[in-house]
Amino acid sequence: MFTYLAALAEDAQFFNVFRYITFRTGGAMITSFIVVFLFGPAIISNLRIRQGRGQPIRADGPQTHFKKAGTPTMGGLMILSGFLVATLFWADLSNLYVWTVLVVTMGFGAIGFYDDYLKVTKQSHMGFSGKLRLAFEFVIAAIASVMMIYAQTGTFATSLSIPFVKSLLIDLGWFYAVFAAFVIVAAGNAVNLTDGLDGLAIMPIMIAAAAFGLIAYLAGNTNFANYLQIHYVVGTGELAVVCGAVIGAGLGFLWFNAPPAAIFMGDTGSLALGGLVGTIAVATKHELVLAVIGGLFVIEALSVIIQVASFKLTGKRVFLMAPIHHHFEKLGWTESQVVVRFWIIALLLAFVGLSTLKLR
Questions:
Q1: Does the predicted model carry a pTM greater than 0.90?
Q2: Which positions does UniProt annotate for Mg(2+) binding (predicted)?
């Protein structure tokens, strides 16, 4: 919305700053943080009253988790509120990529909200039907994929970029829409699986958002894209503003989610934020790089897949408990040790992923 103020630059030079993505990214970050920080306590208080016993605690989980009983969930509402306000204020609303990310984020957030609602009201971990939930996610992701294909031109729109290799594109045809939808859904659910400890998911999400904000800015700028020899994707620079909104909202949420958490993110936030990062990865043609930058989420998801497959095939479990962050808790790591060490891993993987911008 503020981008329209740039038209006033002819009368007052000050308004020219609203043309710059970097300025609006900073504005989005500050705005989303302020919204979450100011309205967070009221949202937490309201959710605590409405939810009563709060999010149910897994009976087979680490014993230290039982002291968290009664903590409200759906904290994703705080994040999405700050994110939405900041994005609508600071992003260029004529940009199709911005609306695509909003469709996925709010759509996945709605699915997560319903899942959280069922868990709280039933006081059970059995929320939304898994198959039905995935079906809705794929529909939303498929719509977003088609929107992004429409935003680009020629075979580039349906091509897969290969990291570390200059100018290599593999045209997947319309199968690319299926692939892109899978990336978005996989990202959403991987983050969802990671959200199991206070602060564990939100910091890696902010790290991934910062990395993809930089990638979006560079890929959307013809000069930087040519210099780095990455694929120039017209319009994706605006997604840096969206990433700024995520970082600010995440910082605001972390203020309340820091141990001991006053509120849990819930599926409302984790599913939405994962889908958001996945969508930006697709938009910027860095789908495969997402597996590196979001490597922590991949590890968490793989641990669950391996655990389930092993138990069904052999009757034995590979990990003491899945997702893998619970495995380390069972080994004796404190919750804060798991969280901080996983943050370090996420940060290192983000740097490795960003190295693909130059190592070609």
A1: yes
A2: 192, 267
